[in-house]
């Protein structure tokens, strides 16, 4: 199973408790949703990054059935262009872009702008 390919996009489930992140991740990774929710709760209270990661997934991953709506360019369309060029899931690229942007304290914004001008539009498949 290729976990990053665009052929099976990462989405949020409509049947989840809050934003559908845990349910969709559990289904995607074929693990028990209760176990995943407990791990996530542990990461929120003891490690501190779980809340941020959950919100990030809820914002960046499209709701199931709305994948095509999420394929609109945001912030110059760099993640969309990279997704199409390298066949990587768009939601995962957006999550990675936010994490790198915050982790680099914004200095990766320069690389983001450069990539925008380097990548040309790909014809629709």
Describe the protein.
The protein is mainly alpha-helical and 125 residues long. It is 58% helix and 0% strand. The chain contains 7 helices and no strands. It has helices at 21-29, 33-47, 50-60, 67-70, 78-86, 90-103, 108-118. Helix 1 crosses helix 2 (33-47). The two termini are 23 Å apart.
SSE topology:
Elements: H1 21-29, H2 33-47, H3 50-60, H4 67-70, H5 78-86, H6 90-103, H7 108-118
Q: Strand fraction band? A: under 5%
* Rg from alpha-carbon coordinates: 15 Å
On the 0 to 100 scale, the average pLDDT is 85
Question: Total number of helical segments?
Answer: 7
Which ranges are low-confidence, i.e. pLDDT below 50, for 5 or more consecutive residues? none
C-alpha end-to-end distance: 23 Å
Total strands: 0
| Overall geometric form | globular
N-to-C series of helices and strands = HHHHHHH
**Structural class label:** mainly alpha
Which percent range fits the helix content?
A: 55-70%
The description of the largest β-sheet is:
none
Give a quick rundown of the structure.
The protein has 125 residues and is an all-alpha fold. Helices cover 58% and strands 0% of the residues.
Q: Keyphrases for this structure?
A:
125 residues; mainly alpha; 7 helices; globular
């Amino acid at each position: 199973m290729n976990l990053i390919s665009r052929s099976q996009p990462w989405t949020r489930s409509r049947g989840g408790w809050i934003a559908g992140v845990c349910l969709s991740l559990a289904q995607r990774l074929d693990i028990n949703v209760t176990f995943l929710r407990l791990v996530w709760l542990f990461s929120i209270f003891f490690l501190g990054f779980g809340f941020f990661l959950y919100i990030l997934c809820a914002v960046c991953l499209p709701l199931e059935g709305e994948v095509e709506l999420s394929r609109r360019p945001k912030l110059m369309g760099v993640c969309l262009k990279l997704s199409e060029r390298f066949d990587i899931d768009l939601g995962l690229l957006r999550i990675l872009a936010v994490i790198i942007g915050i982790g680099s304290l914004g200095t990766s914004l320069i690389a983001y702008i450069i990539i925008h001008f380097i990548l040309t539009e790909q014809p629709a498949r």
